[in-house]
Amino acid sequence: QVQLVESGGGLVQAGGSLRLSCVVSGRTFSRYNMAWFRQAPGKEREFVAGVRWNSGTRYYTDSVKGRFTMSRDYNKNTVDLQMNSLKPEDTAVYYCAVGNAWPPNDYWGQGTEVTVSS
User: Fold this and answer.
1) d(CA 43, CA 52)
2) Are strands 33-39 and 18-25 parallel, antiparallel or unpaired?
3) What does the pLDDT look like over 80-117, one tens digit per residue?
């Protein structure tokens, strides 16, 4: 059974940092794409950052470029999202996803909540 478990969310002041982690178990996802999405209250889920398995190329939505960094550990089957210079508009539930498509959407975690206070 595939399981994705996110951690690292919390409450932080604007300008602060958080590091989210996602651990994938049940399968080896070395040949799968991985990504982070987020869903703010009253809004649709949106792509935040992702990495393609074959090239290692990372992609970021414009609003987080220069502030967020995604890293992937193929040996540990984990993917992290380092979030710096956080803004109130980054407040959302953040989800990890993995799969064959781009962006990936085959398997999802339960989400971790990030709240940025002004």
Assistant:
1) 26
2) unpaired
3) 999 999 999 999 999 999 998 999 999 999 999 999 99
